[in-house]
Amino acid sequence: IPLRPYVAWLRLQRAAGAIVGGGSLARAAADAGFSDAAHMSRSFRKMLGMPPSALVPGAQATARRS
Asked: For the chain, what percent of residues have pLDDT higher than 70?
């Protein structure tokens, strides 16, 4: 793997761990090294095909009720 995609993957892993751990999307983005939450969101959609908000604990249950 080239270095850039590998570093992007590591950032996504760090951000995903923070989100699943209950952190805010903005804090997860900053801690993982993204410039802002929108940059992290675009990267999630590009690499994983889903938004980072899908990892928020309890988000799936709330989405099903609506």
From this structure: 88
